[in-house]
């Protein structure tokens, strides 16, 4: 099942898993990445809910940005290898 999801999200994962540079992986970084993904998805949901009352299109920009960050962090945190997690943190 994980391999099929890795194939589905390979365009995102290939960005972070590419390269031969040395990296420093810490298991805590993956956990923090998942927490950040959950927080950003919650933030996107709250902004989307509150923007329904305002009725303006300008509120969609933060929703798209927060949703995009949540998507990338959750995909890399759940499906990415150690290189991808360390690359998103900038550890070399």
The end-to-end distance, rounded to whole angstroms, is: 30 Å
Which secondary-structure class do the elements indicate? Answer: mainly alpha
* Arithmetic mean of pLDDT: 90
Strand content bin: under 5%
Count of distinct structural domains: 1
Number of strands: 0
Q: What integer value in Å does the Rg equal?
A: 15 Å
Give the overall shape. elongated
Main β sheet profile: none
H/I helix tally: 5
Listing every helix as H and every strand as E from the N terminus to the C terminus, the arrangement reads HHHHH
Helical content, roughly? over 70%
Low-pLDDT runs of 5+ residues are none
What characteristics describe this protein?
single chain; 92 residues; mainly alpha; 77% helix
Description of the molecule:
- It contains five helices and no strands.
- By secondary structure, it is mostly helical.
- The protein has one domain.
- It starts with a helix and ends with a helix.
Topology:
Layout: H1 2-8, H2 10-17, H3 27-54, H4 60-79, H5 82-89
Helix pairs in contact: 2-5, 3-4
Summarize the structure.
By secondary structure, this protein is mainly alpha-helical.
